[in-house]
Amino acid sequence: MSKPDYDAVVVGSGPNGLAAAIVLQQAGLSVLLLEGKDQIGGGLRTAELTLPGFRHDVCSAIHPLAVASPFFQTLPLAQYGLEYITPPVAAAHPFDNGTAAAVVNSLADTARGLGADARAYRQLLEPLVATWPGLANDVLAPLHIPRHPLDMARFGLSALLPATVLASRFQTPEARGLLAGMAAHAIQPLSNPTTSAIGLVLLTAAHRKGWPLPRGGSQGIADALAAHFVALGGQIETGTYVRSLTQLPSAKAVLFDVTPAQLLQIAGHSLSAVYQWQLRRYRYGMGVFKVDWALDGPIPFTAAECRQAGTVHLGNTLEEIADSEKATARGAHPDKPFVLLAQQSLFDDSRAPAGKHTAWAYCHVPNGSAVDMTAAIEQQVERFAPGFRERIIGRHTFTTAQLEAYNPNYVGGDINGGLLDITQLFTRPALRASPYRTSRAGLYLCSSATPPGGGVHGMCGYHAASRALRDVFKLQPAPLYHEADSALSAVKSLVS
Ligand SMILES: Cc1cc2nc3c(=O)[nH]c(=O)nc-3n(C[C@H](O)[C@H](O)[C@H](O)COP(=O)(O)OP(=O)(O)OC[C@H]3O[C@@H](n4cnc5c(N)ncnc54)[C@H](O)[C@@H]3O)c2cc1C
Description:
The protein is of the alpha/beta class. It is built from 17 helices and 16 strands.
């Protein structure tokens, strides 16, 4: 047999494609990374979407999961220019009475701000924050026998609950609203099981390393990952959109940073009938409608906490957020949608000309929605920041169709690579011994349509590439970062 062109080819250069390519390259293989667009990065791109000099994060903006990632933490990304900025308030949650709940790095200070719920907040979060270094490897992974079973069991007891149930631990509207805003990152009705999981992970991450943003924009994460991959000997080719397996150079393993709908188009004929059936049954979740603004001043939030926050959750009470998410899941477009807003330029002066600002926001909409939610989103900002509209000097919007045209992984505007409900949380995209293997030997999925799902953490890519290394090349991946181990080895090296 003739030698293949490469040991491995990775299709798609989002954070998971980049992570997979690095894992394979670290093992000494020859790896080609193909990207359909002219620029690498997937959900990690930054561009002047509105006016010259205003740099907007096209997709992801805030990166608690990137700094918590057990894989990214093993990589020397700072050497390639990646610098994180951590806003003093990770997330603020304003209410109609002009006050706001605020999540800061200190768990004690955050709890104190929740008044009568301070104790309940500490009881819920303290054990998770204390055990997170071990938990991270178990949570950000496919289903497996946990390395820390007791910690995982404690996490699971709360994480498996619907957020509306977990919220009954709190009595104040502030703590209940705060939890609802965190859980709404699950992009599904808050009465669904497991909606507490993402909320707890995000709160825990805030109390460990904050919710940072990269200086210069999210593109900085992709650029640093790509520079590291190339320094290890990897090759990148952009502008190659893969429509068929026949386009690919020969390789022993091919990993796809795409979702099931695209895999079916590219490789469907070569997959087993059962696996094709499983992929066709895969469900996508709600979409998003996104707005970026160029502003001639900071957003004039009434509550001071919001003016110091990297992220602001606009949705008022738990009841209002739960209603809005439920209505959206049923196909409606609420007048008062839950809005996630980031204000990067408050902390990073490279994002806008002097004295000017950028802001980024989105709300959830039904999958495939064609409705323009600009007015509803701006009304929500205005509600908590009177005078906001007068500061707008430029605007760019994305409907669900425009998002999908920009990146085919956002099917119907779903930014999580598929619904993250209890039926698809661990078994995405299909119930199999390994969710990363397809039915065809040597072909793998490595996108957020595999566990642990959406977000910029690279862990889907890490686990998929580890699977391919073991299956095809009989090699082991480099170990993941484990803070407890690294603290232990630091102590050992001091002692020796
Ligand atoms: C508006 C928005 C806001 C978000 N905010 C955040 C946030 O603040 N924090 C966070 O952690 N996450 C956020 N996310 C989610 C995050 O961006 C994604 O979960 C993440 O990027 C998924 O990574 P991935 O590698 O699986 O896929 P992607 O990042 O989608 O990358 C896939 C890549 O593959 C390429 N590709 C696809 N098909 C082909 C093909 N056939 N041939 C060649 N190339 C192909 C695409 O062009 C793309 O570059 C956000 C997403 C969006 C859209």
